[in-house]
Amino acid sequence: MTTVTVGTGPVSFEDVVAVAREGAAVELGPDAIDAIDRARAVIDDLAASATPHYGVSTGFGALATRHIAPELRTQLQRSLVRSHAAGSGPEVEREVVRALMLLRLSTLATGHTGCRRETAELLAALLSHGITPVVHEYGSLGCSGDLAPLAHCALALMGEGPVRTADGELTDAATALEAAGLAPVQLQEKEGLALINGTDGMLGMLVLAIHDLTDLLKVADVSAAMSVEGQLGTDRVFAPELQAIRPHPGQALSAANLTALLRDSGVVASHRGPDCNRVQDAYSLRCSPQVHGAARDTVAHAAMVAARELASAVDNPVVVDGRLESNGNFHGAPVAYVLDFLAIVAADVASIAERRTDRFLDKARNHGLPPFLADDPGVDSGLMIAQYTQAAVVSELKRLAAPASVDSIPSSAMQEDHVSMGWSSARKLRRSVDGLSRVLAIELMTAARALDLRAPLTPSPATGAVVRLLRDAGVGGPGTDRFLAPEIDLAHQLVTGRAVTAAVASVIGELQ
């Protein structure tokens, strides 16, 4: 099993994916243990002081004016976690919870939170043993961090609340800890806050979305190339000199991919000569690099924000230079904004893909192909309703593109009077990314059928590899009508499993 070592520096995107999706084990590095111990010594000194210190010897939020006596402080931490574990709704996906736990551990490891070594080590042990606390869909406002989701995880460290074992069995935390040979912790001063006051849920979902979108935008270039080819479009508009006069980096990369994908296409070559009367293709074909490129640039911006957040210690108050200071770094606005921005990206890339697909099905626009690519139009409906499915998804993605981050709602007796709603932005982005993958799968199916119908003209080596991939997987070619849902599901699995980009890479190398 792979082991990710968490030190005082940021975890990488690859580490997050390995822990969240691949079940990698986690350990604390010696630098992290030293930093944790130094910060804890500061908290212990403050706890012994007669002066109240927020998070150490006071209440929380709007109740911060209450000074808590030493004999009540362990109860204070237990009460904080129990009361904040107030989520509701469906369970959040295991990969999201594991990402959230890893990122909270990464902040603990910076030595700015004041938690104890044994608390951080137990959090790492839960990840290594595959024990995943049950976290619910609703509960985070994305300010003071993802409080409720993180509190459900902190509850498990106390040996309380429901968890799932490595094999997915639902049990209670005490039972799961005992089975793994682990003992719950009794939280001390400041530790409750240290465990729940971060942007880790929304950040984990952002990192996973960036990981997925990076490949999906390559798939979008593949499906666009197949559509340009199948609709007898031109590849001349993707020439590098045309991209250079509008120097957006993502546009240049997408255009270069399209050029490489269409190289040596018999279909494109068949209408490249002087007799071709196709002056300009429709926008959905001609402007694919402009849309896909803008999406790439947006993902790059989101990755920059995510990298900064991964390098952050998000907590309040924090230990800095031997003292404890209040701050507002838990506000999720930077993450929330780019989560919303990526939902716009997913919606628009899906929208242009659906428009390319629709052109294949319209006899007036598909340049000689049968209506709806049907075997016997009228008797057969072909791919008519597959496009309906695309359209339904695209419509949903447009609704999901409405930003959550502008919808602040005050809480905590107006102490927390402006919040980011970043958790909500992240939850809808996950649905958006899933929807985009389904739309692209249907475009691939449609374009592949069209290329088969162009025979004896031959597709390019790269697009031909994708057609073969689909056929070998059980996504059928032209023919009489059949049950389409299983074939759509197969195509979708090839997209999300990265088989599409792998098939292309095996012929022309990795796409950019």
Q: What fraction, in percent, of the residue positions are helical?
A: 55-70%
By secondary-structure content and strand pairing, the structural class works out as mainly alpha
CATH class of the largest domain: Mainly Alpha
Question: How many domains in all?
Answer: 2
Work out the strand percent.
Answer: 5-15%
Shape: elongated
Order of helices and strands: EHEHHEHHEEHEEHHHHHHHHEEHHHHHH
- Major sheet, described briefly? 3 strands, antiparallel
Topology:
Blueprint: E1 3-6, H1 13-22, E2 25-28, H2 30-47, H3 73-84, E3 88-91, H4 94-108, H5 117-128, E4 132-133, E5 136-138, H6 147-157, E6 162-164, E7 170-172, H7 173-179, H8 191-196, H9 200-230, H10 240-244, H11 249-262, H12 266-269, H13 283-286, H14 288-310, E8 318-320, E9 323-325, H15 333-361, H16 384-400, H17 422-453, H18 461-473, H19 485-496, H20 499-508
Parallel strand pairs: 1-2
Antiparallel strand pairs: 3-5, 4-6, 6-7, 8-9
Helix pairs in contact: 1-4, 3-6, 4-5, 4-9, 9-11, 9-14, 9-15, 9-17, 11-14, 14-15, 15-16, 15-17, 16-17, 17-18, 17-19, 18-20
Pathway: Amino-acid degradation; L-histidine degradation into L-glutamate; N-formimidoyl-L-glutamate from L-histidine: step 1/3
Protein name: Histidine ammonia-lyase
Subcellular location: Cytoplasm
